[in-house]
Design goal:
single chain, alpha/beta, Ribosomal Protein L4, Chain: A, six-stranded mixed sheet
Protein backbone atom coordinates (compact mmCIF):
# COMPACT_ATOMS: atom_id res chain seq x y z
CA UNK A 1 0.00 0.00 0.00
CA UNK A 2 1.35 3.45 -0.84
CA UNK A 3 1.91 5.59 2.22
CA UNK A 4 2.00 9.40 2.26
CA UNK A 5 2.43 11.99 4.97
CA UNK A 6 -0.61 13.39 6.76
CA UNK A 7 -0.56 17.14 7.51
CA UNK A 8 -2.66 19.56 9.49
CA UNK A 9 -3.64 23.08 8.41
CA UNK A 10 -0.51 24.49 10.04
CA UNK A 11 1.63 22.53 7.61
CA UNK A 12 2.90 20.14 10.31
CA UNK A 13 3.20 16.43 9.65
CA UNK A 14 1.09 14.62 12.22
CA UNK A 15 1.51 11.09 10.89
CA UNK A 16 1.13 8.91 7.82
CA UNK A 17 -1.85 7.59 5.93
CA UNK A 18 -2.06 4.40 3.89
CA UNK A 19 -3.82 4.64 0.55
CA UNK A 20 -5.65 1.92 -1.33
CA UNK A 21 -3.59 -0.02 -3.86
CA UNK A 22 -6.67 -0.35 -6.06
CA UNK A 23 -6.80 3.42 -6.61
CA UNK A 24 -3.48 5.02 -5.71
CA UNK A 25 -1.19 2.13 -6.64
CA UNK A 26 -2.35 0.87 -10.03
CA UNK A 27 -0.28 0.44 -13.18
CA UNK A 28 -0.41 3.77 -14.99
CA UNK A 29 -2.22 3.65 -18.33
CA UNK A 30 -1.14 6.69 -20.36
CA UNK A 31 -3.48 5.92 -23.25
CA UNK A 32 -6.54 5.90 -20.98
CA UNK A 33 -5.54 9.23 -19.44
CA UNK A 34 -5.06 10.71 -22.91
CA UNK A 35 -8.51 9.54 -24.00
CA UNK A 36 -10.09 10.97 -20.85
CA UNK A 37 -8.44 14.38 -21.31
CA UNK A 38 -9.40 14.58 -25.00
CA UNK A 39 -13.00 13.64 -24.19
CA UNK A 40 -13.17 16.15 -21.33
CA UNK A 41 -11.92 19.02 -23.49
CA UNK A 42 -14.19 18.00 -26.37
CA UNK A 43 -17.27 17.87 -24.12
CA UNK A 44 -16.44 21.32 -22.79
CA UNK A 45 -16.16 22.76 -26.30
CA UNK A 46 -18.91 25.03 -27.59
CA UNK A 47 -19.96 25.22 -31.24
CA UNK A 48 -19.72 29.01 -31.55
CA UNK A 49 -18.13 29.23 -35.01
CA UNK A 50 -20.59 29.93 -37.82
CA UNK A 51 -20.40 31.16 -41.39
CA UNK A 52 -23.18 32.41 -43.68
CA UNK A 53 -24.43 30.49 -46.67
CA UNK A 54 -25.50 32.15 -49.92
CA UNK A 55 -29.04 32.47 -48.56
CA UNK A 56 -27.84 34.40 -45.48
CA UNK A 57 -25.33 36.81 -47.03
CA UNK A 58 -26.73 40.28 -47.57
CA UNK A 59 -27.33 41.49 -51.14
CA UNK A 60 -27.29 39.71 -54.46
CA UNK A 61 -30.99 39.88 -55.13
CA UNK A 62 -30.63 41.19 -58.68
CA UNK A 63 -29.13 39.17 -61.50
CA UNK A 64 -25.68 40.73 -62.23
CA UNK A 65 -26.22 40.81 -66.00
CA UNK A 66 -28.51 39.25 -68.54
CA UNK A 67 -28.27 35.55 -69.22
CA UNK A 68 -27.14 35.65 -72.86
CA UNK A 69 -25.37 37.91 -75.29
CA UNK A 70 -22.67 39.45 -73.07
CA UNK A 71 -19.91 36.95 -73.83
CA UNK A 72 -19.44 36.38 -70.10
CA UNK A 73 -20.35 33.40 -67.98
CA UNK A 74 -23.91 33.29 -66.74
CA UNK A 75 -24.53 34.27 -63.10
CA UNK A 76 -27.64 34.61 -61.04
CA UNK A 77 -26.29 36.36 -57.93
CA UNK A 78 -23.20 38.23 -56.79
CA UNK A 79 -23.49 36.32 -53.49
CA UNK A 80 -22.78 32.97 -55.10
CA UNK A 81 -20.00 31.05 -53.30
CA UNK A 82 -17.66 31.54 -56.27
CA UNK A 83 -17.87 35.32 -55.94
CA UNK A 84 -15.78 37.41 -53.59
CA UNK A 85 -17.99 38.30 -50.64
CA UNK A 86 -20.34 35.43 -51.40
CA UNK A 87 -21.63 32.70 -49.15
CA UNK A 88 -19.54 29.89 -47.70
CA UNK A 89 -20.32 26.38 -48.93
CA UNK A 90 -19.17 23.97 -46.24
CA UNK A 91 -18.35 26.27 -43.33
CA UNK A 92 -19.28 25.67 -39.67
CA UNK A 93 -22.98 25.99 -38.94
CA UNK A 94 -22.94 26.57 -35.18
CA UNK A 95 -24.68 23.24 -34.64
CA UNK A 96 -21.65 20.94 -34.53
CA UNK A 97 -21.63 18.27 -31.85
CA UNK A 98 -18.19 17.65 -30.38
CA UNK A 99 -19.39 15.36 -27.57
CA UNK A 100 -17.43 12.20 -26.87
CA UNK A 101 -18.43 9.29 -24.69
CA UNK A 102 -16.01 7.06 -22.81
CA UNK A 103 -16.75 3.63 -21.35
CA UNK A 104 -17.10 3.69 -17.58
CA UNK A 105 -14.15 1.34 -17.12
CA UNK A 106 -11.88 3.60 -19.18
CA UNK A 107 -12.93 6.61 -17.10
CA UNK A 108 -12.13 4.84 -13.87
CA UNK A 109 -8.83 3.47 -15.16
CA UNK A 110 -7.79 6.95 -16.30
CA UNK A 111 -8.74 8.48 -12.94
CA UNK A 112 -6.86 5.82 -10.99
CA UNK A 113 -3.83 6.24 -13.26
CA UNK A 114 -3.83 10.01 -12.71
CA UNK A 115 -4.06 9.63 -8.92
CA UNK A 116 -1.28 7.03 -8.95
CA UNK A 117 0.89 9.35 -11.05
CA UNK A 118 0.50 12.09 -8.45
CA UNK A 119 1.52 9.71 -5.68
CA UNK A 120 4.56 8.53 -7.65
CA UNK A 121 5.60 12.14 -8.34
CA UNK A 122 5.27 13.12 -4.67
CA UNK A 123 2.62 15.65 -5.65
CA UNK A 124 -0.18 14.34 -3.42
CA UNK A 125 -0.79 16.11 -0.12
CA UNK A 126 -3.30 14.75 2.41
CA UNK A 127 -4.76 17.00 5.10
CA UNK A 128 -6.31 15.74 8.31
CA UNK A 129 -9.04 18.37 7.84
CA UNK A 130 -9.60 21.67 6.06
CA UNK A 131 -12.04 24.02 7.72
CA UNK A 132 -12.41 27.78 8.02
CA UNK A 133 -14.73 29.66 10.33
CA UNK A 134 -15.35 32.38 7.75
CA UNK A 135 -14.41 33.08 4.13
CA UNK A 136 -10.92 34.57 4.33
CA UNK A 137 -8.68 34.51 1.26
CA UNK A 138 -5.65 35.59 3.26
CA UNK A 139 -6.00 32.68 5.67
CA UNK A 140 -6.47 30.20 2.81
CA UNK A 141 -3.38 31.55 1.04
CA UNK A 142 -1.39 31.16 4.25
CA UNK A 143 -2.44 27.50 4.58
CA UNK A 144 -1.33 26.77 1.03
CA UNK A 145 1.96 28.56 1.57
CA UNK A 146 2.70 26.51 4.67
CA UNK A 147 1.98 23.33 2.70
CA UNK A 148 4.25 24.52 -0.14
CA UNK A 149 1.70 23.51 -2.74
CA UNK A 150 3.16 25.46 -5.65
CA UNK A 151 1.39 27.75 -8.10
CA UNK A 152 -1.34 25.42 -9.42
CA UNK A 153 -3.32 23.54 -6.80
CA UNK A 154 -6.44 21.37 -6.82
CA UNK A 155 -8.23 21.18 -3.46
CA UNK A 156 -10.48 18.13 -3.15
CA UNK A 157 -13.01 17.94 -0.32
CA UNK A 158 -15.70 15.48 0.67
CA UNK A 159 -18.61 17.87 1.09
CA UNK A 160 -19.75 21.42 0.52
CA UNK A 161 -17.34 23.54 2.57
CA UNK A 162 -18.57 26.91 1.39
CA UNK A 163 -16.05 28.88 3.46
CA UNK A 164 -13.12 27.00 1.90
CA UNK A 165 -14.53 27.39 -1.62
CA UNK A 166 -15.12 31.12 -1.19
CA UNK A 167 -11.70 31.62 0.39
CA UNK A 168 -9.87 29.83 -2.44
CA UNK A 169 -11.72 31.11 -5.50
CA UNK A 170 -9.87 34.44 -5.63
CA UNK A 171 -6.41 32.87 -5.41
CA UNK A 172 -4.83 32.52 -8.89
CA UNK A 173 -4.10 28.93 -9.87
CA UNK A 174 -6.20 27.38 -7.08
CA UNK A 175 -9.26 25.28 -7.91
CA UNK A 176 -11.64 23.46 -5.59
CA UNK A 177 -13.81 20.43 -6.25
CA UNK A 178 -15.59 17.58 -4.51
CA UNK A 179 -14.40 13.99 -4.40
CA UNK A 180 -17.32 12.82 -6.53
CA UNK A 181 -16.54 15.36 -9.27
CA UNK A 182 -12.88 14.54 -9.86
CA UNK A 183 -11.70 14.42 -13.45
CA UNK A 184 -8.40 13.45 -15.02
CA UNK A 185 -7.76 16.82 -16.68
CA UNK A 186 -7.92 18.78 -13.41
CA UNK A 187 -5.68 16.25 -11.64
CA UNK A 188 -2.97 16.33 -14.30
CA UNK A 189 -3.19 20.10 -14.76
CA UNK A 190 -1.89 20.88 -11.25
CA UNK A 191 1.45 21.10 -9.50
CA UNK A 192 0.03 19.48 -6.36
CA UNK A 193 -3.17 17.64 -5.50
CA UNK A 194 -4.46 18.35 -1.99
CA UNK A 195 -6.97 15.90 -0.51
CA UNK A 196 -8.63 15.91 2.88
CA UNK A 197 -8.70 12.63 4.80
CA UNK A 198 -12.48 12.43 4.34
CA UNK A 199 -12.08 13.01 0.59
CA UNK A 200 -9.61 10.10 0.41
CA UNK A 201 -12.13 7.85 2.19
CA UNK A 202 -14.89 8.94 -0.18
CA UNK A 203 -12.74 8.32 -3.27
CA UNK A 204 -11.82 4.86 -2.03
CA UNK A 205 -15.50 4.05 -1.38
CA UNK A 206 -16.74 5.30 -4.75
CA UNK A 207 -14.01 4.23 -7.18
CA UNK A 208 -12.89 0.87 -5.84
Amino acid sequence: MPKVALYNQQGEQIGDIELSDDIFGVQINTAAMHQAVVAYLANRRLATAKTKTRTEVRGGGRKPWRQKGTGRARHGSIRSPIWRGGGIVFGPTGEQNYKQKLPKKIKRLALKSALTAKVNDGALIVLDALTLDAPKTKEMAAILQRLQTGRKVLLVMDGSQENVIKSARNIPGVKTTHAGQLNVYDILNTDNLVLTRDAVNQIEEVFV
